[in-house]
User: Fold this.
Amino acid sequence: MGQQHLARPVTVALVEDHQVVVDGVRSWFGPPPSPVELAAQGPTIESVLGVEADVLLLDLNLNGTMVIDRVAELCQGGQRVIVFSEHEEPETVRAVLDAGASAFIGKGRATRESCVETILEVAADRPSVTPPMAQAIATDEGPHRPQLSDKERAALLFWFQSMSKASVAARMGIKERTVRQYIDRARVKYAAAGRPAPTKEKLLICAIQDGLIQPDEVTVYTSLAAQSPPDRG
Amino acid sequence: MTEEIEQVAQRYARFTALGAAVIAAVWHVGYDLTVTVTGWSSFRWPWLSVAAWLVYSAVFAVAVRSLLRDSRGPARIVEPALVTLALDIVVIAALHPGQLVGISDWAWGSVGWIGVMLVWGRPRWKAELVAFLAANAGIMAAAMALTGTVDRVSISKYLVVISGGVTMQLGYTWGCHMLRARAEDAVVLARRLAADDALRESAQRIHADRLRRYAAIRDVAEDLLQRLADGADPGDPRVRADCTAGALRLRRLITEREDVPDRLVSTLRERIEAAERRKVMVTAPPFGHYLPGLPDGVREDLLRAPVRALDGARSRARVTVSAMSTMVSVAVVADNDDLPISATPVREPSGVVVTYQRQGGEVWVNSIWQGP
Assistant:
């Protein structure tokens, strides 16, 4: 499923009420041929509804109103949503991830490379963990939080607070590839522990296909799979 | 102000309780002792009445001790209450037949005050006092029935003493209870007003602080816009860096949400501002609005090394705080070339662990506290 997107540019619909940010994002994507293409943009959610795009890039604060409660509704249709906001506090990040958002990009630290990388990973339904997401997942103490191993939690926290995954690897005395594995597994577990949403399902299926996680480690996924036959009887 | 009102409420509780003791004492000495001595001949066994008077005094002393201590009756009241009620019977037994409800039959009119003292300040005082007074009235009614003292005069005396006693004892207790309840309401209200004042003062302080920072950023932005209007090149990396720094500061102000910032957060903000005044570009994601309570010394140990890294940053720094209910982690990544670092984690006596790492021209300083 993910590999199909790599053959053509990933299309993005952007909901953003500040023209300067729209221009900035467009310049990040660059002129064609580019791996990412801005298919549509508008200042409200309604202005891009109906547009066929692989990823919806959503600013949370539109004309002074927070639209956190619209994220679930957007994800329910299977739309991959990446939130792009300066409201990076863990509570907000957890709320949008729980609602089904595939990723959260903090405006404060985003760079062209990190933004494009996140969009490509999300379009391919691969786990993507930005620093604000790492912090939000690692510090979640809610009743439905996933059981993270100590190393997974440490990798997330260090990734949020350090300069790079390489520095996390040096700190933990492991390979950078292993650091990525810890972080990605934590993301997958987090998706599995939250409320079900089609976008999370896609992420879980890909994670299992890639061998990142075993089916029996994902209770939400298996229960969804169990529901798929028409007659469960 | 709140303290004064609390003191007034405490005095109300104390002196109304002692008021009950004074009434009981005056009654016990002024009436009970007087009729025992002056009515000596009306007793078959006057020394038994004296003994009853002394037992009453002992129970009185127990109750007064408790009232003096915490303006409440004793923790256990069943035993002293039963002993006190038994005095009704003892005094009746000490009297000559025919003296029941007479002037020397002092116990049944007095024990109600002991009941008042015993139930004082207890949560179920009303039910307990009513039960005590009813038992007292019941004992006397039973004695009258058993001894055949049912003439009109005796019944009238009984009704006058019982209704008078009950009215005074219940009335005093209820009135004082209302007085104490109103005083406690006043304390609650005073505390609420004081909390509102503190919150308002804190909000004003935070607002003033934000206005000051907005003003500082506005000056920087004005200067920047002026330079651009005067022909500064937007492509110039220095102009772009200044624009980015201004935007970062504005963004941080917009996303700050703490009503009352923790001292750790306040200190970090101060150092971030100081760094920005030195033209260091600082990124600091919102610190969130939950930090656990920290034992003495932890906050200082958490801040020391990261703040040193931030203070020595040459041109850029990133400040982060992560917190859970039993963990706080503060980190600074900065292009600080001079910071002495330790290759191994440094363990502070407070339990804070500080680690250092240099990589690609940057230093990463991370202090972590993990609670029990």
About this structure: The interface with chain B takes residues 86-91, 106-109, 131-132, 135, 138-139, 141, 157-158, 160-164, 166-167, 170-171 of chain A (CB under 8 Å).
